[in-house]
Write a structure and sequence with these properties.
The structure holds two protein chains of two kinds. By secondary structure, chain A is of the alpha+beta class. Chain A is built from 17 helices and 17 strands. The longest helix of chain A is centred in the first third of the chain and has 28 residues, at 2-29. Chain B is mainly α. The chains are: A alpha+beta, B mainly alpha. Chain A: GO terms for molecular function: penicillin binding; peptidoglycan L,D-transpeptidase activity.
């Protein structure tokens, strides 16, 4: 009997051994995979059980966590939610976080590698885990001024610091309240989110860095002028034929200047005049002379066809890869297949203001651990040189002239010299225009670069134009930030 | 084997044997007392940690209830000093610590659910523990010699059958989680008679096999190097197989069927030394289980949940793998060292106090805690098998093996189900899971094993030789 008993003992031990192995597989070998399963509510709750670090503007929190009594332990609150929505984004209980909440999730939740020892230390010392705080580059005065200026328009305003790439203000409208998506009820979040997605105004778009990509229209003439001057074959005084109508090559389509007539009179027009008065025909001619490769090369030096994370993801502004001759001509005044975000146009203005060097745009001023140890400090990085210093100086003069004596006159500020360029971009044949202004001030000591985008013709359909709608908004914001 | 040891023993028995016999029991009971104190300290610690972890403060009420339970366990210990002085010193402390950890975890989930008073499963579990320990005490006081049970072999068989049939009686039987294995009056007092039936079955199998093992083991044809039994000797196997299949079909309880059948096969094998019985029996059972999985929806569902647990269709299905996968998430959340008592989210898993208590414990105590719990079971089962090795009468040996193996098999079926080793079936984790019938049955098993080990120790020659 004992022989059998021995075997039964061995079988029983094997049964237990199986259990030891199986539980080791689940709790050790497969633990990470199981934690990563999207159906695992524990993982989600855990990301909430940490006191998420705040997002600060000028030391004041615009997103912070407050203890709550439910499964999630903390409620995320967005102070002044709609104003800062394009900066903070939101973190829903049942989906992916957007904005800084998404792009800096690891830091805010205290799980980034640089916080490993900090969290370990807190674990050992029995303190509750806590995420890092993120200070952003936004200036609350500039942000509020941009919000007020944009009013009820559909569009965006972005203000940057030319020398560093800091984003000082970033406003988009219409927008949403991130608090409505931070409620601890998945179904409610889903419903709110669906409503926002179906809203014809697309409030979830950040039009400053993406959304419906717009043609830049005449503000792209800055890139054209830069390409011309950089080629060494053109000066501001180089001349172009000045007809009232220009037929695109290989087609019967006719291009006109916005005035309907010639560009300022005379049979020939200089580059400087064409930019100051924002005429289309000379730039179509210039585009055909330069060719799409040269234009694309210049555009790409400004940041077109490159992707930037600020660290929020942004849309890429594009100059087409292989335009035919008529498309190339259209690209000369920012039409055709050219698409740009306000952030990209702000980078163009900022580069001109910054002696030709393009800085990488960035929203993050600093990241600080809960023990006040700095994790990351702002570090201005160059995207590269787009134009020479002398070209930058020349273009600044041309843009100042555009505001003082040209098509961007409504951006004039008493006592401050403003460099600027307006744009009025066509969309479909009967669609309302897209209105632009991009520029910087003060022109002799650039502090701020600004780009204003107003979609839907500012409510005026095809009657609205950049200088009428967009330029005054830029003026209003620049006045506010320069006078503070 | 008995003969061989008996023949040798006189020569090897030391001259001081009689002296040791008087001194040993004292030592054993003192060891037991020491271990019991450790067990109660662990249990009290677990409850306090649960309160600190989940409530953030200490609530004396439950600590007092737990202390009352400890007093009762010490009462059992004192009783044994008089009536079972030579009993195994490990069984009682192991049962105590498992019972206590179970209460702590059930209480922890009560806190998460916000249950208190009679709503609290922990309070009910404590009351059931009291009943179970009193039942164990009664068993050990009433059955002074396990051979008494041998006389009631067939009565035990009858009792087992009646207990198994009870849930099928209209008006008395209740269906829960799809299985019709409960009896009760309303929701007030419910009982799973099948848990007690496993003890009656072990007694019946032991008695029956000791009486009939010669005819079951001696004759038969040899085939493939194994001697297979004659057709007419297949009777008992067929009856037990039919019984298990009936449990699967009528009570819809795969786990219980597997438990009974496995118990019978092991006891049959130990009694007859015929491996052919095991081969035959396992083939029959698996054939039956496979047919059942093809024809019975609930069995098929269990297999689907097991094999394709993470398939979204299976996961979302009614009665699908949702709870199994939630249990796995819980275990994974525990990792190596666990979240700490009161700090995890075992309440996210369905039935975390009963079927999934092992996942709850694994989440909060981690792999380390789970290993410790499994090791306690291994030790418990090993102490039981020791009776089998050392016992001097075949009935006692068989009963000891049967009762220990039924615990081992039950742990394997339920923990294996939760950890996806085998399809999940609704059995209780001995001593840990919330549920009165299981507690009472397992504490009676403790009492019987204690009684058996006491008899074994009364014959030190076998202890030395064993």
């Amino acid at each position: 009997m004992n022989r059998e008993l021995k075997r039964v003992t061995i079988v029983s031990l094997l049964m237990f051994l199986t259990l030891f192995v199986a539980s080791t597989i689940i709790q050790y070998a497969q633990a990470d995979n199981l934690a990563a399963d999207p159906r695992n509510a524990r993982t989600l709750y855990q990301s909430y059980s940490v006191e998420r670090g705040p997002i600060l503007v000028g030391g004041d929190p615009i997103a912070f966590s407050e203890p709550s009594d439910d499964d999630y332990k903390f409620q995320r609150i967005y102070a002044n939610g709609p104003l800062y929505a394009p900066v903070t984004g939101f973190i829903p209980v049942n989906g992916e976080a957007t904005g800084l909440e998404g792009s800096l999730n690891a830091e805010l939740s205290g799980t980034s590698e640089s916080q490993f020892f900090d969290s370990l230390n807190r674990l050992i010392s029995g303190q509750d885990p806590m995420g890092a705080s993120v200070e952003v580059t936004i200036d609350p005065v500039a942000q509020q001024a941009a919000w007020d200026a944009l009013g009820d328009y559909t569009g965006a305003i972005i203000v940057t610091q030319p020398s560093s790439g800091r984003i000082v203000a970033m406003v988009t409208k219409p927008t949403y309240d991130p608090n409505s998506l931070a409620v601890h009820n998945g179904e409610e979040v889903d419903q709110t989110y669906r409503n926002l997605v179906e809203d014809p105004g697309d409030p979830l778009f950040n039009r400053a860095t993406g959304g419906d990509m717009n043609p830049p229209g005449s503000v792209f003439k800055l890139v054209m002028t830069a390409a011309a001057l950089e080629s060494g074959q053109y000066t501001p005084d180089s001349t172009f034929p000045n007809p009232a109508e220009f037929t695109l090559p290989e087609t019967s389509s006719v291009v006109r200047n916005s005035s309907g007539g010639t560009c300022g009179g005379g049979s020939e027009v200089t580059l400087a005049t064409a930019l100051r008065l924002s005429c289309n025909i000379p730039f179509a001619e210039l585009a055909l002379e330069l060719g799409d490769d040269a234009i694309r090369a210049q555009a790409e030096k400004f940041g077109f066809n490159s992707n930037f994370s600020i660290p929020n993801p942004t849309e890429t502004s594009t100059y087409p890869a292989n335009p035919d001759a008529p498309q190339t001509a259209l690209s000369g005044f920012g039409q055709g297949d050219v698409r740009a975000t306000p952030m990209q146009m702000a980078m163009v203005s900022a580069a001109i203001a910054n002696g030709g060097i393009v800085m990488d745009p960035d929203l993050v001023e600093s990241i600080t651990a809960p023990d006040f140890r700095p994790i990351e400090e702002f570090d201005a990085t160059q995207f590269g040189r787009a134009i020479s210093e002398s070209t930058a100086r020349t273009m600044t003069e041309m843009m100042v002239n555009g505001v003082e004596n040209g098509a961007a006159s409504n951006a004039r500020i008493d006592g401050v010299s403003v460099a600027g360029k307006t744009g009025t971009a066509e969309n479909g044949e009967d669609d309302p225009y897209t209105l632009w202004f991009t520029g910087f001030a003060p022109a002799d000591d650039p502090q701020y670069a600004i780009t204003v985008l107003v979609e839907d013709g500012g409510g005026l359909g095809q009657e609205g134009f950049g200088n009428l709608i967009a330029a005054p908004l830029a003026k209003q914001v620049l006045e506010a930030v320069l006078n503070k | 084997m008995t003969d061989r040891s008996a023949a040798r023993a006189p020569e090897r028995a030391p001259a001081t044997g009689s002296v040791r016999r008087i001194r040993m029991p004292q030592k054993l009971r003192n060891l037991e007392l020491g271990l019991l104190i450790v067990a109660c300290v662990i249990n009290a610690g677990a409850i306090v940690l649960v309160q600190l972890g989940a409530l953030g403060r200490i609530d004396t009420q439950l600590v007092l209830l737990g202390a009352g339970l400890s007093v009762l366990v010490f009462g059992l210990h004192v009783a044994m000093r008089f009536v079972a002085r030579d009993a195994d010193p490990f069984l009682l402390p192991i049962a105590t610590v498992l019972n206590g950890l179970g209460i702590a975890m059930i209480y922890r989930i009560d806190i998460a659910y916000g249950d208190a008073g009679w709503e609290s499963a922990a309070v009910r579990q404590i009351v059931w523990s009291v009943i179970a320990i009193v039942a164990a005490l009664a068993t050990i006081l009433l059955i002074r010699n396990h051979r008494t049970l041998f006389r009631y072999t067939y009565l035990s068989g009858l009792i087992a059958i009646v207990l198994l049939l009870l849930p099928l009686v209209p008006g008395l039987g209740q269906t829960r989680g799809g299985a019709r294995v409960w009896i009760g009056i309303g929701d007030l007092v419910t009982f799973q008679p099948g848990e007690i039936a496993k003890i009656a079955l072990a007694v019946f199998f032991a008695g029956y096999l000791v009486r009939n093992r010669d005819s079951l083991s001696m004759v038969g044809r040899t085939f493939l190097g194994m001697r297979f039994p004659r057709g007419r000797d297949l009777g008992p196997l067929l009856v037990v197989w039919a019984l298990s299949m009936a449990v699967i079909v009528f009570q819809r309880d795969l786990g219980t069927a597997l438990l009974y059948f496995g118990l019978f096969l092991v006891m049959l094998y130990v009694a007859t030394s015929r491996l052919s019985w095991v081969v035959l029996g396992l083939s029959m059972f698996f054939a039956g289980a496979i047919i059942a999985s093809q024809t019975l929806d609930y069995v098929n569902g269990r297999f689907q949940n097991w094999l394709n647990a993470f398939d979204p269709a299976v996961y979302d299905a009614q009665g699908g793998s949702f709870q199994l996968v939630q249990g796995l998430f819980g275990l994974a959340n525990g990792g190596l060292i666990g979240t700490g008592l009161g700090q995890g989210r075992p309440d996210l898993t369905p039935v975390p106090q009963s079927d999934y208590i092992i996942a709850s414990l694994g989440e909060e105590l981690g792999l380390a805690g789970l290993f410790a719990i499994l090791a306690l079971y291994v030790l418990f089962v090993a102490r039981g098998f020791r009776i089998g090795f050392a016992g001097q009468d075949d009935f006692g040996k068989l009963l000891g093996v049967g009762l220990s193996f039924v615990v081992a098999l039950q742990v394997f079926i339920v923990v294996g189900g939760v950890t996806r080793v085998i399809p999940l079936t609704g059995l209780t984790t001995p001593f840990l899971a919330a549920g009165g019938s299981s507690l009472v049955a397992n504490w009676i098993i403790v009492a019987l094993l204690l009684r058996l080990s006491d008899t074994v120790r009364n014959h030190p020659r076998l202890v030395i030789d064993g």
